Automatic annotation (TrEMBL):
<keyword id="KW-0902">Two-component regulatory system</keyword>
<dbReference type="GO" id="GO:0000160">
    <property type="term" value="P:phosphorelay signal transduction system"/>
</dbReference>
<dbReference type="GO" id="GO:0043424">
    <property type="term" value="F:protein histidine kinase binding"/>
</dbReference>
<keyword id="KW-0472">Membrane</keyword>
<dbReference type="GO" id="GO:0009927">
    <property type="term" value="F:histidine phosphotransfer kinase activity"/>
</dbReference>
<comment type="function">
    <text>Functions as a two-component phosphorelay mediators between cytokinin sensor histidine kinases and response regulators (B-type ARRs). Plays an important role in propagating cytokinin signal transduction.</text>
</comment>
<dbReference type="GO" id="GO:0005829">
    <property type="term" value="C:cytosol"/>
</dbReference>
<dbReference type="GO" id="GO:0005634">
    <property type="term" value="C:nucleus"/>
</dbReference>
<feature type="domain" description="HPt">
    <location>
        <begin position="45"/>
        <end position="87"/>
    </location>
</feature>
<protein>
    <recommendedName>
        <fullName>Histidine-containing phosphotransfer protein</fullName>
    </recommendedName>
</protein>
<dbReference type="Pfam" id="PF01627">
    <property type="entry name" value="Hpt"/>
</dbReference>
<dbReference type="InterPro" id="IPR008207">
    <property type="entry name" value="Sig_transdc_His_kin_Hpt_dom"/>
</dbReference>
<dbReference type="InterPro" id="IPR036641">
    <property type="entry name" value="HPT_dom_sf"/>
</dbReference>
<keyword id="KW-0932">Cytokinin signaling pathway</keyword>
<keyword id="KW-0812">Transmembrane</keyword>
<feature type="transmembrane region" description="Helical">
    <location>
        <begin position="90"/>
        <end position="114"/>
    </location>
</feature>
<dbReference type="InterPro" id="IPR045871">
    <property type="entry name" value="AHP1-5/YPD1"/>
</dbReference>
Amino acid sequence: MDAVTRLHRQLVDYSNSLFQEGILDNQFGHLQQLQDESNPDFVAEVVNLYFKDSERLLNEITVALDQQNVDFTKVGGHVHQLKGSSSRFIFLHFIDLIESKIIVFFYPILYLYIVTA
């Protein structure tokens, strides 16, 4: 077995394990089907765009949460954008986890904000 065949086999095995763990889903499979010889880097480009956009949104969430008076509408909008792009991609369960952590962490603050408003 030559090196290219071994690498391809490793990629297939790794992809299969990510599907089994629920990290990848059918959306990723559909994305792979769109890649062809005319655009061999299609999946890598889409994944790269997703990570750049996610990094931007996470930075915006961080900035919004660092404000003295947190605008929860703004935070919620950023989380919603992140969740939306993730649902079209592959990492929805990670976003659900992040969203739940944000809710658990900020619920007492949000509750006080609502009660005292």
